[in-house]
Amino acid sequence: xxxxxxxxxxxxxxxxxxxxxxxxxxxxxxxxxxxxxxxxxxxxxxxxxxxxxxxxxxxxxxxxxxxxxxxxxxxxxxxxxxxxxxxxxxxxxxxxxxxxxxxxxxxxxxxxxxxxxxxxxxxxxxxxxxxxxxxxxxxxxxxxxxxxxxxxxxxxxxxxxxxxxxxxxxxxxxxxxxxxxxxxxxxxxxxxxxxxxxxxxxxxxxxxxxxxxxxxxxxxxxxxxxxxxxxxxxxxxxxxxxxxxxxxxxxxxxxxxxxxxxxxxxxxxxxxxxxxxxxxxxxxxxxxxxxxxxxxxxxxxxxxxxxxxxxxxxxxxxxxxxxxxxxxxxxxxxxxxxxxxxxxxxxxxxxxxxxxxxxxxxxxxxxxxxxxxxxxxxxxxxxxxxxxxxxxxxxxxxxxxxxxxxxxxxxxxxxxxxxxxxxxxxxx
Length: 428
What we know:
Distance between the termini: 71 Å
Strand content: 35-45%
Number of strands: 26
Oligomer: single chain
Structural class: mainly beta
Low-confidence stretches: 7-64, 412-416
Mean pLDDT: 78
Number of helices: 7
């Protein structure tokens, strides 16, 4: 099947396919993800049992949320892709600053970076009165001086679940950043018992999951025929237990990394290259060695200009659109060839800069192309069901932005070293 559940229950099709940070990894939060991961305090830390009253849930890996204040350290490194609120001719660009709120009160404010839609603050501050379990809110504004109220450029709510354990290092997508705007804030957060900020996630890793009475608790999309794309991680499965163990190990488990939604399973034990075989291996084996790759995220922003986009898809299933073909004589085809241009602030036509993101690292790659097997997980920065994504693509909007994902490129194996010459035979 194209959409499969490897877990306690088959709960229908996949949900929330847009990638987001899970613990120590890079995130792009859609609005639905933000709401899902920021329920009320009571909903987050209590549960209902048929035979029990409401009670706190405490695993062996969790602290007692809400008990007492502790110290956290936050670093607001930078933002990228902010809306230009100073769009009038000669006005320059936005002059952004960031405010951090805790329990709806401001606890920190960065300096203003003038005339820059990709500001770098590198602003680190401690907060001594943090209560475990509470979210943090980050709001970005354009400073228009003392005589005019600031322009709002977006905000992000970061739940405690994102940085508990070893901490967080990555991008958070800003919500309400403007129509068609994909803006991100890069943050580092650590708790008091961590000496250093956590490193960013590796592009690929191996997770070993031993025998367990529990099922994996994964929802998988196998449309591409080669990998298993993780679309959801169930709360009561073996994979969530593995993630909890990563939290518990902390620095001692530096070789371990969280499995997260948006990862691609490319091999299970010795099985690879076929989605069906990978799925069967996950279902049948109790001891698993899973080779996972993070998502390589590509954002393409184009103007239609009454021309065909040139994208073909499989029938819409789940929460992503699988590309089956890209027409050469189309808007995306021209983007692939590096022929797509946009006007800069001086009115000159220039080729767009092609970039991709893995974790919190953004790279420029002029050879980048959208290709068969890529998945569209968001249109205009918003995740939705595949059918709704398709309708948004076919809308009348002239400017449209896509978020594509594919497995990160693997490292090329090193060239084998030539054998050492054999020593000469001794003379008689």
